[in-house]
Amino acid sequence: MARDNGLADFQRRLAAIPKAVRAGVQPALDASADELVTVQRALAPRDHGTLQASIKWATTGELSRQVTAGGETTTRPARDGQGEYDYALGQEFGTRQTPAQPFFYSGYRLVRKRIRSRIKRAISKSVRASYGK
User: Fold this and answer.
1) Contact 26, 63 (CB under 8 A)
2) Is residue 22 in some structural domain?
């Protein structure tokens, strides 16, 4: 009489889920980061294009992407001679002389729901695909 390996089969399927989910979510994370960068660049002020060019994303871990704006290319000396400031922050939050022209967080708020939905769909699809093996 053949022995039923139902529990062993179930445990094998459960063990395969994390690897499949990690592999399935990475393209969704990349697409979401690309979309966010595109929206933020569209919202950024277009004086010289330096600020827009500074908006980029990088992989910081297997399941994380970091979108940044500013940095060395947008750092300028302060007018009063007291150090330097990043004008990406001045654009986002404003300064004493200029009002805020938000582009970074407002861009994130525009696409946040779509990003979350895309990642949830990728997780669900990966779980279903790996569980069916």
Assistant:
1) yes
2) no
